[in-house]
Design goal:
This protein has 50 residues and is mostly helical. It contains 2 helices and no strands. Keywords: Membrane, Transmembrane, Transmembrane helix.
Length: 50
């Protein structure tokens, strides 16, 4: 993905860079949300067991 940003950057800096960054940001947010939900379930499960 970084390679795509670098190569596209030469052709059309603003538009492609913004869309790539937005897509990357959404992926990061989804990953964070997933990790938090898994951690939440784990903590909840441990609290229920303990």
């Amino acid at each position: 993905m970084l390679w795509r940003i670098i190569t596209s950057d030469k052709e059309n800096p603003s538009r492609i860079d913004i869309t790539e960054s937005t897509a990357l940001l959404l992926q990061i947010l989804q990953a964070v949300a997933f990790v938090l939900s898994v951690a939440g379930y784990t903590i909840h499960g441990l609290a229920a067991c303990g």
